[in-house]
Model the fold of this input.
Amino acid sequence: MSSWIKINGSTNRSYPDIPDGYRETISEGTRCIGFLDRKLTKGNGSVESLREAIDEADAIVVGAGAGLSTSAGLTYSGERFMSVFSDFYREYGITDMYSGGFYPFPSPDIMWAWWSRHIYFNRYIDPPRPVYNDLLSVLDGKDYFVVTTNVDHQFQRAGFDKKRLFYTQGDYGLFQSTGPKNRRTYDNEEYVLRMLESQGFVKDGSGTYGIPESGVTMRIDSDLIPICPDDGMPMTLNLRSDDTFVEDDGWRAASARYSDYLRRHEGQKVLYLEMGVGSNTPVIVKYPFWFRTWKHPQSRYACLNYGEAYCPKEISDRSICIDGDIGNVLTELLN
Done:
């Protein structure tokens, strides 16, 4: 079993000498609550003004949330959900991928049947729409850095420079041990594919797994339940839900690069480009972007969001808020 696993990082390491961009930015987000008025405005925005802001920027910090993946077609409900999880809907009444992640499944083999599907169809396949590719084209030739709460790895799949990415909340492609002293993460692709095959999923002509006419089961073989090769403990996903989340060597390095990027560009014309960020974790992206725009007069803030495009009135004169589908806005930018 352990031969399937690629191990990332060390089991025990402290990081006293490198900056922590994650906690630095949360501190800024918290300060924003006290500094900026809660009276929000939709601001003013157009694709033309966004194009101008991108062209004039010395640096662009992209802050991405779930709305970006939704625009790319990685939806968690409706037809896409039913095409993969209709059996879980019939058996357990689960109606979407998000709520299914919290369901108390009766056994580990059923739980991992759920999660292997969830991981594969959101992490290991390309999205239906080329939104991430279009964003990369929009940023071509620009000095950029991406901070995201998304865990679906779609930036790297689209070809973004890994050293310009910071996945703050984890990665569907990584497992971690439930042992509290183990600070490593483990690549899970081969695990996930074997789990799918044990349920009966088969590859089509393009190499993508799908459900055959004979159907699939809702459980994996018991010997596929992931056990950590280092400490023998059950594995779980490397997703931030509480203080057991493992911040491994790669995560720490990305956090440090984010901090360094922000520091190097202080005082320049920085565009804080927020895309699809909701209100679940505003202190990671939204509030810090507001705070930095307010703090640095040469900075600008842009928000692309369907139904939630707004900003504090203190920075409205330097903000571009576009209420609409992100993919459509990027298409207009490219055209």
